[in-house]
Amino acid sequence: MSEIAEKFGIKQALKDLGLQETNNGTSTGKDFFSSGDVIESYSPVDGALIGKVKTTTKEDYEKVITTATAGFKEWRTWPAPQRGEVVRQFNDELRRLKEPLGKLVSYEMGKSYQEGLGEVQEMIDICDFAVGLSRQLHGLTMHSERPGHRMYEQYHPLGVVGIISAFNFPVAVWSWNTALAWVCGDACIWKGSEKTPLTSVACQNIAARVFAENNVPEGISSLITGDYKIGEIMTNDKRVPLISATGSIRMGKIVAQAVAARLGKSLLELGGNNAIIVTPDADIKNTVIGAVFGAVGTCGQRCTSTRRLIIHESIYDKVKDAIVKAYKQLRIGNPLDENNHVGPLIDKDAVKNYQSALDKVVEEGGNILVEGGVLEGEGYESGCYVKPAIAEAKNDFKIVQHETFAPVLYIMKYSGDVSNALELQNGVVQGLSSAIMTNNLREAERFLSVEGSDCGIANVNIGTSGAEIGGAFGGEKETGGGRESGSDAWKVYMRRQTNTINYTTELPLAQGIKFDL
Ligand code: UN1
């Protein structure tokens, strides 16, 4: 254990979460096994080894899918509120283990402890939501055109759901999918990120314990571990009717094509290129808080992170100066230490991408306003700490069009009407989150109108990140079109059936067709 790990109670957190030095990364619930290579998980906080996880082989996967498929056949017959009761108990455990899990998320992924706790809170919230939902899952009834007929629709569980999640939200995204899928009556197989394998095992440990206590069939919460190759096996498997994948646009295109080729369903939550429009009527103080948290929170590694600020020329200098000033106050360092605002990037590859984005913006003619750079020396030994940077740039720069998962903020000017700002905001291939800062009702409503933001999320007077679980989460265009979490996102985890019942002694045909024998 490293000094930081000792000081911030990581050893105890690992113990509370049932983690060993080496863990099996394959599980069908009670049963944990794994015969693949070992992944070593190093913390980006201090570069220390946290623990090891054994990966899933093709044979291991076969055991998982067979068990999940068999388990589903029983699970689907449980009344949904009983499934909700299991999720409620799982949630009790999340509440009990919020601190150790939040701490592990922070130490293994590098986000601040506050944000680690926030992520576990999202899990708790979605479980609460799912428990209520377990007494609903309702379809519509409609009137039949035929006398003595009744028509309605009902939702049945779909089957085995494959979940592929990313390192940046290593636990919440899993729970957005599983909490809903479980109450819907599905079995879930989770491939977490190979960059955060210990948090995946920790979550599986919690689910496994609660599920075993409730005699939930084996396989309903399953885990597989490894790189894209094991994900590919699951994506191509026709025994998995739905693949929910969160990650890069590049990965999403591969997954979407593989799933579509077998006519499966996919739920994609891919990259964003989120902008805040700042109009002449904006509250500057709130704009600064929203923009800075959006750009540097999670070290710029949220898919909802603020990448672009589109500022009206009349207040451009004022907003620019206020944001540059705020960046000077940022404390970068150990994310477990609550005095710091910004932790490390996930790994050295991410640092390279960050550096290359800064080089490219200069090459394309951008103007650096807040200098970036990799931090060295005491406290920065992992080599993953970078300075959040700001560049003045044009929207059509290649690098601005591209999502860089790092704290690099591009700022640009617009003139005239808010429609000019909207053109810039919508002028990217991604369509996840967007925001406008304004106290002008007309501008706000135009931003929300059919001619306004083309994103899945459009906020007024808050930033682009930090969505609540109650709304459907996801985006348009190359963000993939999927919706997870709240509202009616649950429907994707179920199959809809339209039922027409004839309670007469006749057999009248629809559309008035006569067919007499
Ligand atoms: C993600 O980055 O993949 O809206 C999810 C937010 C968080 C979730 C982000 N609730 O910023």
Automatic annotation (TrEMBL):
Keywords: NAD, Oxidoreductase. The active site is at E269. It is an enzyme of class 1 (oxidoreductase). Coiled coil: none annotated. GO terms for molecular function: aldehyde dehydrogenase (NAD+) activity. Residues 37-498 form the Aldehyde dehydrogenase domain. Its EC number is 1.2.1.3. PROSITE patterns: ALDEHYDE_DEHYDR_GLU (PS00687). Belongs to the aldehyde dehydrogenase family. Homotetramer. This is aldehyde dehydrogenase (NAD(+)). It comes from Salegentibacter holothuriorum.
